[in-house]
DNA sequence: CGGATGGTTGACACCTATCAAGGCCAGTGG
DNA sequence: CCACTGGCCTTGATAGGTGTCAACCATCCG
């Protein structure tokens, strides 16, 4: 299945990693050792004595759908890693409206901008579905980075990934129609949330219509009409937040 | 004058720094010591023995208007710092069209994504006006970062800045009209390239119309009409690439 | 029941992309 | 000198897309 570049590779962090016996020992003590994203974790390079610091300031937190992980303009209190579920990053504007800027899936880091600039969050993080987030407290995270610069390198590489995605999003907005981008977005979401249903695929949308509209940069009314047009094309069906896609494989140029 | 957030603060790096005698000595040996952006240079933390490595792999290059600094899909060969002029980062698409993604002014770093991912450039860098760029070769840059992690921290902070700007750009695109964003963009460019002319300000646009259109995410024909509408409003005048703005101070809500 | 929320639909004005044509200007070659 | 060309930009016509305002519906909840 073809994916829209501006959303990134949905499976980028879903990797199976083989472990040597030595690595297995290290993983036992490492707080991320149990995590399926261990190999790509920004904390993976932490070893030896520093693991204690990491373990000490490490905390897991379960979030219900709709719950807020951190508020906009709040002080950063650490580095958050999504372990399960789906986190939405949005900004609230002065006029009361808000814009959904990014989705963060398991394996992705959240709140690192505020952490690196040692300041306030410019976005709000909200769990869209039941989620689990692992946190490393700010003070200790700084200490760990001090002791182990390759953690910083991994953080930087996440930044690069995000800049790349932003660029793809800007390019997609300039070169692709809204209808096509909605189709791309839906197929991409289907990769995460979809399940087979006969010859179809089906999912429960984790996003409200207005969040979807934000991701495309259009008004909710326009989104509603885009959905109508997609449905008329016959590839998608919509029943509330249930979405069915008829073709399992759909080229980006097919719509 | 009010600035559009999505373009960043045009004076962010124009700072006057006081120097202690000790700093003055360090600056004499430091290749960036003469640069007016020394205090904020990503290489500023480099000191002592490592300065030799830095100086050794340091090279300056002057570019004419229109000249290419690096090509898209070319291998990264170092970290580039804009010292003078204006660099445009654009991507070329398969269909022959291209999109201007970012402008880099003196003090800004260019090509660091390819450097950090140790791969190819995804954008092309072109000098829009006569420019000077300082380069630190890749191999040595990696060595310097290894020896001095705070350089990496500064690079990461540049990444954060770029992500912030991308976010502001996405928000601006979703909440502001194209006409308003063009006015914002012109005023922002005026800060860099404008000069007083009586009670007006005047500048020679460093960008073609189609580059301007790219920055707004519209077609060139639309840009031409937006310019016409701005001119009709009376705040701007256009004669080819010469732009006059009547009011020195113009609120973002004034258009 | 009343009200809030989330979503859809309609009407309308406006904006934009697209295609086509033409103007302006610098460079080129007769 | 002129004609020609190509790049850059503008303008016009037109169809289609989008924002905005408003009404409406379904659902949930106190």
Describe this structure in words.
With 255 residues, chain A is α+β, with helices and mostly antiparallel strands. Chain A has eight helices and twelve strands. In chain A, strands 1-8-3-6 form a four-stranded antiparallel beta sheet. Chain A has a four-stranded antiparallel beta sheet with strand order 2-7-4-5. A four-stranded antiparallel beta sheet of chain A has the order 9-10-12-11. In chain A, strand 9 (195-197) and strand 10 (200-204) form a beta hairpin. In chain A, helix 6 (178-193) crosses helix 8. The model of chain A is unreliable at 250-255 (pLDDT under 50). The A-B interface holds A 91, 93, 97, 99, 101, 113, 116-117, 122-123, 146, 149, 152-153, 155-157, 159-160, 162-164, 166-167, 169-171, 173-175, 214, 217 and B 91, 93, 97, 99, 101, 113, 116-117, 122-123, 146, 149, 152-153, 155-157, 159-160, 162-164, 166-167, 169-171, 173-175, 214, 217. Chain A binds a DNA duplex (30 and 30 nucleotides) through helix 8.
Q: Secondary-structure blueprint of this entry?
A:
The structure is a homodimer of 255-residue chains.
Chain A: H1 21-29, H2 50-56, E1 58-63, E2 68-70, E3 78-84, E4 87-92, E5 98-104, E6 109-110, H3 112-117, E7 124-127, E8 131-137, H4 138-147, H5 149-175, H6 178-193, E9 195-197, E10 200-204, H7 209-216, H8 220-233, E11 236-239, E12 242-245
Antiparallel strand pairs in A: 1-8, 2-7, 3-6, 3-8, 4-5, 4-7, 9-10, 10-12, 11-12
Helix pairs in contact in A: 4-5, 6-8, 7-8
Chain A binds a DNA duplex (30 and 30 nucleotides) through residues 177-178, 208-210, 218-222, 224-225, 227-228, 240.
